């Protein structure tokens, strides 16, 4: 009964407190606008291409209603007049309120900062900025500083400052630990004796890494004394992050689950004293009653704090334990594979299933060896990849593919059924897909008639979903590095499945880029920054996806000369017709029906993916949104690289590698 009474009492108290806070917010914190027009990057004229691109981008900035996590980031136009814009809403506002705030910001900022190429605006509920330089995934201008305070001074400044510092350190860590959609945390902390409570919120743009977010907020916390020393409230706003604190709760706790920072342990070892008697007590009975109520309230508060502290300790202990276990498991997997016995096949079993690897059962020749069709004793059909001894794929590549495929589970990835390691033999056993590979169907004059537009669009979307899983949704971020038509297999319903992970590269989940001196893959599908400089990122697979989409739409192999008269490769041919508005020339004549708008949009998306500048290419999450949303406008693509010139540049690469790694390293140092 007592527990129920306390619960009801606390719920009622919370409701009244929340109602009071909302009322106070409306009275004390009206929606104010704070522009900053002195960031830099020069000016533009009203007749310039930059101004036209800016107007177009701002008018369509919030048109994509699928972005409901409070962060918008788009670009429009071609270099050197490309406009980049981003908007971040406070973590507790609804999508409708967010879009309304950003819409107002996009309207007001050019008015407040006329002709400035780079400008920044802070609302109470959102931050909006645009620039002539790319901002996505970049920790922009760490020294940028913009802050103001609540003029009211704290009653007990030292204790209030201590409580604020404890709160901000916890919020910083929790916000940085957020995912790729939201990096925000809110909560409160109390002083030791005066009973004051400080509420705070810390937030970063979700495109930052965990370390970058932590650094940005740490810099913001160090700026608090410069603006808000001994004040009950203040705000520090930076380009990529912001923080705020007040003596009242200003955020919605139903949207952001608040963190209550526990009090530090008391250093007072003296016996606890009872609460002092109140003056002017009319009667001893009433005084005892008041003291009893106070004791009950104090006991409830102390009990709640103890329970909360225990839960927090259990939570962090669980996270630490789980992280340790996961790290040890991943390290063990990468250093040595100890496969499950159920996945390991006997070599004689596979030899019998493939009729001793007979030519009649050969399905094709991969980069690392032939692939055979087999039938196991239980009549199950399988595809067996037999790695050749001189293929260049040794134990490391073999373990890499086994490790990856065993962990990956997605409808658009080929499923690994098992493997065989016996002597010099290395075999991978996959599910058998009767329609073989995409290149077999797409580039065959007879087979390609099976691919109407509906099927081709299904293949495009399926490949995109498979790549997105590798980049964002699997336990490790995986760069395939060899996406091409022959590595896309088709099941009996012509659903696509990505295959061949022998060249895949593993990234940490927060890693975005790496370099290699060993270039592997297939010319024509390689992004220029990878083929020429060994730069690896998810944008490498995005480039290959763009080539695949253009091949699927045109029915043409990118390695062929498309226009004999003008000697054009696929990219040059597509770009010329795109610029001239003759996209019908790009489409495979076999496609007799299908939405022309949908086909044109897919060509547009593919051209965005194959842009030469890495930063201009979209990520696969954006590509999937583009493929499934027809209401949002697409930015204009810039000119893609010429594959024919590009391939002739690459002809020196294999010879350099045969002459030794030192030659390649010297060339790269010279380029630097």
From TrEMBL:
Keywords: ATP-binding, Glycoprotein, Kinase, Membrane, Nucleotide-binding, Phosphoprotein, Receptor, Repeat, Serine/threonine-protein kinase, Signal, Transferase, Transmembrane, Transmembrane helix. CDD domains: Gnk2-like (cd23509), STKc_IRAK (cd14066). Residues 1-26 form the signal peptide. It comes from the Eukaryota. Pfam families: PK_Tyr_Ser-Thr (PF07714), Stress-antifung (PF01657). It is found in: Membrane. Residues 32-135, 142-250 form the Gnk2-homologous domain. The chain crosses the membrane at residues 294-318. InterPro entries: GNK2 (IPR002902), GNK2_sf (IPR038408), Kinase-like_dom_sf (IPR011009), Prot_kinase_dom (IPR000719), Ser-Thr/Tyr_kinase_cat_dom (IPR001245), Ser/Thr_kinase_AS (IPR008271). Residues 260-288, 653-672 are annotated as: Disordered. Residues 357-627 form the Protein kinase domain. Its main location: membrane. GO terms for cellular component: plasma membrane. It is a single-pass membrane protein. One of its GO terms (biological process) is response to abscisic acid. SUPFAM superfamilies: Protein kinase-like (PK-like). Residues 663-672 have a biased composition (Polar residues). GO terms for molecular function: ATP binding; protein serine/threonine kinase activity. This is Cysteine-rich receptor-like protein kinase. It comes from Acacia crassicarpa (northern wattle).
